[in-house]
Amino acid sequence: AAGASVSNTLTSGSTQALSFTVSGLPSGASGSFSSTTCNPSCSTVLSITTSSSTPVGNFPVTVTAIGGGVTKTTAFILNVAAAVVSTVATPTITPNGGSFTNSVSVTLATATSGASIYYTTDGSSPTQSSKLYTGAMTLTTSAIVKAKAFKSGYNPSVEVSASFGSDLVAHWKFDEGT
After folding, report:
1. What is the spatial distance between Cα 164 and Cα 4, in angstroms, rounded to a whole number?
2. Cα–chain center distance at 145
3. According to the model, what pLDDT value does residue 168 have?
4. pLDDT tens digits, residue range 121-168?
5. Is 67:73 a contact under the CB 8 Å cutoff?
6. Is 48 exposed, middle or buried (0-12, 13-18, 19+ CB in 10 A)?
7. 58 and 77 in contact (C-beta within 8 Å)?
8. What confidence tier does 113 reach under pLDDT thresholds 50, 70, 90?
9. What does the mean pLDDT of the chain come to?
10. How far is CA 146 from CA 49, 70, 76, 165, in A?
11. Which DSSP helix (H) or strand (E) runs through 12?
12. What burial letters (b/e) apply to 8-43, b meaning 16+ CB within 10 Å?
């Protein structure tokens, strides 16, 4: 997949000193050997690393070994697939809504390490311009909390919401008398 790497061991039965090269890699890809030379018989590991900008497709790659006046090649097809993009885990809202008297403490969490949670309390959809969640919040009035988690290189999470209603009823004290 674009942005990933792969390795394969190459073994030579030659008694000659050998040097290895790789050619035909697509743009954004690089190849390296654990050892570019060996003497007499040896093995080396070819590692190919792609970047997120490496184009998707099949690319003919040639590995060349030169030694003792002899050149040997082997070819293979490097198949670069589209990078798999993960989605940030859906945040949780605790408690998940309900009625409260006076105030309620609300926490947000996501299982995706390093993700940032953004939230709103007015029922609007959160974006990365909304309030950043940094710790438990206290609600003292009715609110619709909506949350969404983001992480660079990931698709944003699904939006979640919870409705909180205040049961606070004003109590009046009436003085009897004049």
Report:
1. 45
2. 25
3. 58
4. 999 999 999 999 999 999 999 999 999 999 998 899 999 999 999 875
5. no
6. buried
7. yes
8. very high
9. 87
10. 40, 68, 51, 14
11. strand 5-12
12. eebebebeeebebebeebbeebebebeeeebeeebe
Bond before 95 cis per omega within 30 degrees: yes
pLDDT in tens, 51-66: 888 899 999 999 988 8
Helix, strand, coil percentages, rounded to 5, for the chain? 0, 50, 50
66: part of which helix (H) or strand (E)?
Answer: strand 57-67
Residue 79 near residue 26 (C-beta atoms within 8 A): no
Find the distance separating the first CA and the last CA of the chain, reported in whole Å: 85
* Neighbour order of strands in the sheet with 104-109: 92-94, 104-109, 137-139
Residue closest to 131 by CA, chosen among 147, 116, 120 = 120
Residue 47 bridge partners (DSSP):
7, 32
DSSP-assigned letters across all residues of 124-169? PPP-TTSEEP-S-EEE-S-EEEEEEEE-TTSBPPPPEEEEEEE---
Largest CA distance in the chain: 119
Chain CA centroid to CA 96, Å: 27
Beta bridge partners of 74: 63
Give the residue, 84 or 20, on which the prediction is more confident.
Answer: 20
Please tell me what DSSP assigns to residue 17.
Answer: -
What percentage of the chain reaches a pLDDT higher than 70?
90
